[in-house]
């Protein structure tokens, strides 16, 4: 029986959809064109290119370009040139996303002075309303990574001068205090964060989130319990699921599983239902005390309580077997995951890569990598580093180049980290043509090679009398001229 297809009718809704699709495509293509200008231009050239392009610099377009600049590690000064060029246009206002992303790019490239210049410019234009707790955390995160705790706290207070006056400012609220504490937890130590908490807590208003931020990572369960007591008894705050999960995590890392189980019982008494994170933490704790089989039973137990394991839960159980070098049991859990409709992710594969790397098993590592791609799972940077280091140890240029080409084509992994090991291998074996080709691919993607790698390849080209290739390479590298010596 033939099914007749209805002829498409041109409706106003269809026209609207077509117009919307066209606009989305237009913004995407314009964003790509502007990104190429940012990536290839320099100084006044960029302004001239933008001015003559006729491209309308909308807020959405700038969002897309700065996002691309962040993830492709584009030249930070060129990205800032675009940001300021757009900001100077009449009636244009950046989004909070563009501001935070631009600040992240500058911070990652150690341009801290420029961060404060941009923030001051932002305050002048819109009275600082674009500056949010997230902005504060982005900036403080980069400062904390490069500077001391004291300098991080000083930077925190600098935000007070950038924000609107009370009551419109969020500075003296728990949101800003929590941003500072979360940054210190991530970039410094929990001890640093807690010391700052005790020195500043009387000037702010700690809330439940404040305690949840600080509760994890204690060196001893006694210290965590004392902090828990301050929160519940002195401050009168009622613990939530996050609070309990944090304390259970402390117990599990301290290998005090009896306390962890008792706390789960207390949760149920207070009608706080354990979730998949609770059980995943327990699985990890059982692995630490050498009980991978008991941890596997937790996967079944949690189902009885109506909580179904997800990929991280399975990964925790798989990790236990990998640590015990019981790869067959780990494999069986992967099969079980797949049967449950869950897809192994890069973390799953990395658990196996780690064991194979420690045993220097090149063959099985390569088989696993091929299977990983075949299953549609892209490696992450950790996967790539396990592999490229093993390829270097075995001097397998063919495998290293295959991994690199997959990265270029499929867009995974860190070019900067992988390239250092790759170029070491190629230069050690005097594979000058392959080294030059890979470096050019990297530069064309907007990624800057390290000074050491560039100098080694430059020397190889000079020794091989490849002056034309070297000049071509220098021209391509000109966009990084302020950060790398040609």
From TrEMBL:
It holds the Pfam family PPR. InterPro entries: Mito_RNA-Proc/Resp (IPR051240), PPR_rpt (IPR002885), TPR-like_helical_dom_sf (IPR011990). The keyword Repeat applies. Keywords: Repeat. GO terms for molecular function: mRNA binding. PPR repeats lie at residues 240-274, 275-309, 310-344, 345-379. Signal peptide: none annotated. PROSITE patterns: PPR (PS51375). Belongs to the PPR family. P subfamily. This is Pentatricopeptide repeat-containing protein At1g02420. The lineage of its organism: Eukaryota, Viridiplantae, Streptophyta, Embryophyta, Tracheophyta.
């Amino acid at each position: 029986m033939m099914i007749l297809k209805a002829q498409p009718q041109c409706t106003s809704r269809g026209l609207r959809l077509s117009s919307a699709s066209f606009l989305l495509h237009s913004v995407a293509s314009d964003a790509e064109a502007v990104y190429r200008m940012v990536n290839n231009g320099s100084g006044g050239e960029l302004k001239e290119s933008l001015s003559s392009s006729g491209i309308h610099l909308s807020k959405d377009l700038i969002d897309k370009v700065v996002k691309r600049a962040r993830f492709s590690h584009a030249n930070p000064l060129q990205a800032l040139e675009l940001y300021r060029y757009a900001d100077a246009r009449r009636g244009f206002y950046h989004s909070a996303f563009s501001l935070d992303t631009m600040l992240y790019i500058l911070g990652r490239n150690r341009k801290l002075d420029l961060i404060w210049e941009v923030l001051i410019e932002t305050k002048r234009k819109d009275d600082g309303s674009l500056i949010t707790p997230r902005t504060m955390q982005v900036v403080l995160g980069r400062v904390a990574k490069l500077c001391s705790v004291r300098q991080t706290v000083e930077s925190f207070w600098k935000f007070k001068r950038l924000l609107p006056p009370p009551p419109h400012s969020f500075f003296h609220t728990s949101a800003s205090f929590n941003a500072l504490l979360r940054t210190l937890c991530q970039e410094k130590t929990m001890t640093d964060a807690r010391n700052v908490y005790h020195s500043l807590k009387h000037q702010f208003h700690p809330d439940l989130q404040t305690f949840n931020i600080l509760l994890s990572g204690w060196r001893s369960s006694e210290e965590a319990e004392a902090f828990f007591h301050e929160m519940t008894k002195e401050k009168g705050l009622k613990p939530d699921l996050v609070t309990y999960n944090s304390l259970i995590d402390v117990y599990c890392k301290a290998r005090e599983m009896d306390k962890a189980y008792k706390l789960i019982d207390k949760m149920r008494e207070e009608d706080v239902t354990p979730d998949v994170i609770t059980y995943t933490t327990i699985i990890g704790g059982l692995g630490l005390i050498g009980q991978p089989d008991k941890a596997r039973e937790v996967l079944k137990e949690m189902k009885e309580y109506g909580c179904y394991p997800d990929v991280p839960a399975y990964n925790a159980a798989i990790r236990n077997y990998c640590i015990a070098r019981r790869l067959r049991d780990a494999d069986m859990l992967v099969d079980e995951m797949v049967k449950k409709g869950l897809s192994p992710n890069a973390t799953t594969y990395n658990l196996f890569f780690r064991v194979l790397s420690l045993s220097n098993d090149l063959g099985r590592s390569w088989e696993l990598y091929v299977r990983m791609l075949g299953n549609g799972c892209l490696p992450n940077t950790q996967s790539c580093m396990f592999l490229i280091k093993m390829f270097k140890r075995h001097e397998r240029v063919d495998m290293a180049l295959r991994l690199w080409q997959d990265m270029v084509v499929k867009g995974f992994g860190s070019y900067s980290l992988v390239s250092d090991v790759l170029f070491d291998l190629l230069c050690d074996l005097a594979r000058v043509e392959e080294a030059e080709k890979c470096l050019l691919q990297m530069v064309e993607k907007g990624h800057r090679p390290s000074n050491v790698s560039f100098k080694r390849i430059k020397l190889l080209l000079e020794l091989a009398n490849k002056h034309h290739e070297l000049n071509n390479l220098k021209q391509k590298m000109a966009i990084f001229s302020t950060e790398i010596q040609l």
